[in-house]
Design goal:
25 strands, 38 helices, single chain, 6-stranded mixed β-sheet, Cytochrome Bc1 Complex, Chain A, domain 1, 4 domains, alpha+beta, globular, 41% helix
Amino acid sequence: MKKNLLLLLMLIGCFLTEATAQKTKSSTNQKKMTQTKTQPATIKKDNFVWTSVKSPSGITYKTVKGDPYKVRFYTLPNGLTFIASVKNASPRIQTFIATKAGSKNDPADNTGLAHYLEHMLFKGTNKYGTKDWKKEKPLLDKIDALYEQYHQTTDPAKRKAIYAEIDQTSGEAAKWAIANEYDKLMTIIGAKGTNAFTSVEQTVYVNDIPANEVDNWLKIEGERFRNPILRLFHTELEAVYEEKNISLDRDGNKVQDKLMEGLFTKHAYGTQTTIGTVEHLKNPSLKKIRDYYHKNYVPNNMAVIMVGDFDPDAAYGKVVKYMGYMQPKPVNPYKFEAEPVRTSPTEYTVFGPEQESVSFAFRLPGAGTKEARLLTMMDLLLSNSKSGLIDLNLTKLQKVQSGTSYSEIMKDYSVHYFEGQAKEGQSLSEVKNLLMDQIQKIKRGEFDESTMKAIVTNERFDKMRGNEENGSLAFNVLDAFVLGLDWSKKVNEPNDLTAITKAEIIAFANKYYNNDYVLVFKKKGEDKSVVKVDKPTITPVTVNRSDRSPFLTAIADAKVSDIQPVFLDYKSVIGTTLTKNNLPIYYLKNDENTRFSLTYVWEMGKLNDRKWPIALSLLSFLGTKDMTLDDINKKFYSLACSYSVNATDDQIRLTLTGLNDNFKEANELMESILKNAEPDQNQLNALVDRILKSRENNKTEKRIILQQGLQSYAIYGKENPFNYIINSADLKQLKAEDLINNYVKKLINFKHKANYYGPLSEQELAKQIGDVHNNPMPMMEVPAPKEFARKDMTSNKVYFTNFPMVQAEILWVRKSENYNPAIAPTTSVFNEYFGGGMSGVVFQTIRESKALAYSTYSRYTNPSKKSDPHYVIAYIGTQADKFNDAVPAMNDLLNNVPFTEKSFADAKLAVRSGIESERIRKESILFNYDNAIKLGLTSDIRKSIFDQSNSLTWDGMMKFYDQEYKNKPFSYCIIGSNDKIKMEDLKKLGEVEEVTLSDIFGY
C-alpha cells in the first residue's frame, strides 16, 4: 500500500527501444498538478489573492482570486480541512483523506508505526468488520496484552511461547471477524483505486468514487476513523514483513536509504525508514500504534480532498455530518536539530544483483522557501529530458549509459538527486564526474538563459496536460496541505519561476553545491548485510467471506441516484478525413484547452523487421543538414512541444504533442527530422554499445526476467518474440546510412494512419499535415511479420530461473481459446469476483487468511488481436520459505473456487457501477477504437458487458470456470534463489526445465 510520490513520469522525446533510455524526469516539483482551460498565459501576480466567499447556501469558504481551478478551502468547526474542486468531465470524484503524520513522526524506538497503522485502517471498526463485537472484543484485548508481553520479552523460548498463544488467540478472534469488509464496501459503491500510502510527511487514504456515492463514501470514511479496531493484526503484520523483504530485494531501495542516511544524521528523514527496521518489525506494540493514532489522527491535522463532479457545498455538509464528531487536539510540530555542514562528501557502497549505478544527493532548504523554487529551476536546467545540460551534454551525446537529476521537496528539507549508469568500459566514478561537470557549468554560468524561459512555458503546459484528470489536481492540492504551502503561491509558481534570474541561479549553485553531499556506488555482488524478516508461524485464519455486518448491509441497501452509462459510438464521435495524399486521419476535437496530440500509427514493428527499433532509436541522436542535435532539442523545448517514436513487436507510433499555437512549427520540425536526418556512424556505434550494455543490465531486472522473458519462454518456447533481436555481431555491423536512408526516411512510404486530438478543425488539420507529410500514393503494404507458434499446455510444466533474491515469484500461465467477445460479460465478473482486487477470493485467501504473500492476483486476460488467445494468469510474490505453502494455496483456488452468493452479487454490481461512471475521453477514444478494430469489434464492448453481466448466474460462471480453470494444466514460471527453493519441491508441480538467463534472453 505504499505509493512513491517521486516517480511521476513525464514523457518527452524519443524512446530507446532496446538501449537503456535516459531515466524519465521524476520529481515532486514535476508533480505540479493544476488545471488550465486555455493556453498557458502569464497571469498578474496581483490576481492571486485570498478571498472569503459566502455561498448561496450560507456556507463560507476561502478561495484564491484568479485560480483557474477554483479550489475551495473549507474549515469545519472541529478544525478539519475540506478542499474541493469541481471538474465535470466525468461523473467520478478523486478523493484523498490525509493526515499530516508520516514516518518522520514515528517514535525512534518503534519505527514503522505510521505504516503499520495505514494497513490496519482497512480492518474495520466495532460496527463493521465484525460478526459479533461483544464476543470478538475480549479476544482482541487478550491479543493486545500478549503483544505487549512479546514486545518486552527478549528470551527466545519465552517469545516463541507467547507468539504461539498470539497465533492461537488470533485464530479464535478471527472467527468473529469479517475480513476485507472495507474493501467490500468500496466494491459495493463502485470505488476504484482503493489504496493508501505512507511517506515521511503523510499518510493518505485513496479512493476514486462515482459521483452518486458521496454520501455513502463519507458515511464509510466517517465510521472508519471513528474507532478503528486493530483486528487480524498478525496476518497483516506478515504482509508488512513481506513488504520489508520486497524492499530488501530492490537495490534502488538500498541506495535511497543510504542517501537519506548520509544526508540526515539527526533528522528522521535519514535516521529511520518508513517501513521500519527489521528489529522493530519483529517487536510490534498495538498499544503504541493506537497511541500514534490518537495523537496524530485528529481533525486539525487532517484533510478531506475531493476533485471531480459534485456539489461542494452539499459535500461540505456531509463532511460535517459524518466527520464533525472528531475532536481536535494540539499537535506538536516535529522538532529537529539542524544538520551539520560537512566539508567532504560521505561515501557508501552497496551491493546487489541488479545493474550498477552511481547516485549522489545534496541537502537543501525545504518547502515554501525561495531555495525550493531555485531548486526547481536548477533541476530543470540540468535535466528536463530535452534541453537540460545533462540531456544535451551526456545523454544525447551518449557519453553515459544513462543520466538524470530529480528533486524531492519535503517540509523540513529538500533533496537534489543525481543518478547515472556507466557504459561498457566506463567507471562509475567517471559517470559521477561527468554529472558533476554539469553542475559546475551552472556554477560558472555556462547555460542558456533562454532555457529558463522555455522551462516556464513547459511548466505551464505540463500543468495543463496533467490536470485534465482529477487525480493530478488532487495530488497538487494534497502537497500544498501536507507541506503547509500557501495555495495562492502554488497557483503562482510559474510566475515565480519567471522572476528567477540567471545571477540568482549561479549564486544558488555556488552556495549549496559544494562538498556537503552523499555519494553511493551501487555495485554487483552479494549483499551480506541483508537480514530478512523470517516467517513467523501463522495458522490460517477464518475470513468469513459470506458474512456481512449490519453496517455493510445498510450501505448496500441505500438508494442513490442513477448514473447513465455512456458508450462510444465510434462513427458519431470520431471524425475522419484525408490529406491531399489520401492519408487517413481519425479526428477528435479538443474543446477543453489548447493541447494537441498527433500520432501516426503503422501496424508493423520489430517482428516485421528487427532493424526498426534500432533505426528509430538512432533518430533521437541525430541532427539534420540545417540543425544540430542541440538546436533540435532546444527548439522543441522552446515550443513546449515534444515528439516520441516507439517500435513495439507489431506497431510503430510517432507522436507529436504540445501547444496548439505551435503545432505548425513543431509539425514541420518533426517532418524535417524524418526527411533530413543526417546519418552519424559514431552515434550509431555509441548506441550499439549502449544496447549491448542494456542487454546485460536486463539480466539483472527481476521484472523483465519473469514477466517478459520467462513468460514468453513458457508461451512460445526457446525462440520467442521476446528474444527475437539482432545478435551482437550483426548489431556491430549496422550502418547508419542504411538505417536512416532505408528505414527512417522510408517510414512514411508504408501504409499508416494518423490519430489527432486537438483544437484544429478537420480542414485545417488535413491541410497542415498534407503540406508536410508527403507520403506517396498509394502507400506500400507493410511486410509480413515473423510468426511464432504458441505452445499448447497439455501437462504441468515448471520453468525455473535461478536468481539471487530474498523472495520467490511464481507466475501461472495457461493458454485458453482464441479471442471470444461473447464471454466478455462472464470474464469481467469472474475477474472481479476471483482475483480482481482486495475483496477478491485470491487476495482474501492468500493474503488475509493465510498470510502467504504481500502481492497476489489472478486474471483471465484478453488478447490485443482477434487471432490471439486468452490466457489464464495467476501470480504470487512470497518469501522463499513460504513457497511450499503459497503454491498449493493458489492451486487449490484455481481448482476449487469458493462460492459466496453476496460476493458474487457484489462483483456484478462493481462491474456495472464501474461502467456506469466510466468516461473514455480525449485521445483515449481514438486508441480505444484502434483496439476494437484489432479485435474485430465494431461497437463498444462495454455495452454488452453492462447489458448482460447483471443476468449472469453462478451456474453459468461455473461452466466457464470448469472449462478454463478447474483441473487444467498450467505452466509455472518461477524465479528465485536455488539455495532457497529445492528442486524436489519444484518436481512436485510438474516436469521441471531449468531456464538460464542466456536461454531467456538469447545472448
